[in-house]
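Reproducibility note. Readers wishing to regenerate the assembly model reported in the main text can use the exact inputs given here. Chain order matters: entities are listed in the order in which they were concatenated for prediction.
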Amino acid sequence: MPQLQQIDTFLSQVVWLVMAFVVLFVVLRTIALPKIQATLEARRDRIEGDLDRAQTLRGEAEQVLAEYEAAMAGGRDKAQSVIRDAAEDAKAQAATAHRATAEKLAGDIAGAEARIDAARDEAVGNIREVAVDVVQAAAQRLIGGRIARKAAADAVDAASGP
Amino acid sequence: MAGEKNGPLDQFTIKPLVSIDIGGADLSFTNSSLAMLITVLSISLFLVVGMSRGRLVPGRWQSMAELSYEFVAGLLKETVGNEGRRYFPWIFTLFMFILFGNLLGMIPSAFTFTSHIVVTFAMALAVFLFVTLLAIFKHGIRFFSFFVPPGAPKLMWPLLIPIEVISYLSRPVSLSVRLFANMLAGHTLLKVFAGFVVALGAAGVVPLLFIVALTGLEILIAFLQAYVFTILTCLYINDALHLH
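Running the prediction on these inputs yields the following structure tokens for the assembly.
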């Protein structure tokens, strides 16, 4: 087996092994490994940065949504209060108009009743005059003489009674 | 059998390509050294070119480079925890070196330097020494309490402590032999069956199919052994940092 027979080559093999290993170590240590490390770190940083940014954007989006919902709620409240105010206003106006109309109508009714009363009184008064005239004329026809107008009036009043 | 020309073990022969002699020591550039050099270049190319654009959304190549990084980083984190981060460059180099050494050895007629016990033992010994020194620096004399199993009755100590010491000292042996033997066995088996293909003529299609399947298995083992070597190193570091 050459591995155990070529003992004279052992030194050469070990020396070349050490040299090869050290050269490889230096190359990897100074060139290859820093490059790989830098690349992996850059990738990790990039991914973490992207995740952070996504988180931030999400937070912002949630805030905007909250603001939008708050604005919507405020708008709805305001609209309802406007509607309520308008309704109350309209009710108040309707009540006022109703009251004014009612008062006017009451005034008109009272005036009309007063006029009717007046007309009736006048009519009743006229009837008395006519009755007195009728009494005078009837008395003249029956007794042939004039009776005093006052006596006729008293007779009418007594006949009509209270 | 050894040294036999074109035998199944001939593939493991070290052949000097450039003779280098420094002060009487033979430091020749061999086929093993060439395989190591190609491994180092391949890993550097794989990682440096793969990551050259460093895109946010990786392509296939960059994805594989990142995957190898995250695989070893995950391994270290699981076994050692966050304290293990400072050893990461070493662990990563170790894993990639063994993995690419194993995988490139699967290319037909390529040399597999991890199939040599001296190479795997040198790596295992380095891991062992590093881990032991780390434990001694971190815990001082308390390190030796590592050899006393927790909760064991004092009466058993004379029996248990030698067992623990032997098991600790055998770590570099088991670590190196596991990788070496797997590579040796796999490549030898492939060569043996390749010999059958030629010897059996038309019936050689059966061992040929076997070789195809075995090649797949060997690629899995190439990965698995790199993984095992690395995870055991991580576990040893964990032991050194936390003792029990």
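We highlight two features of this model. The two ends of chain B are 46 Å apart (CA to CA). The first strand of chain B starts at residue 16 and ends at 18.
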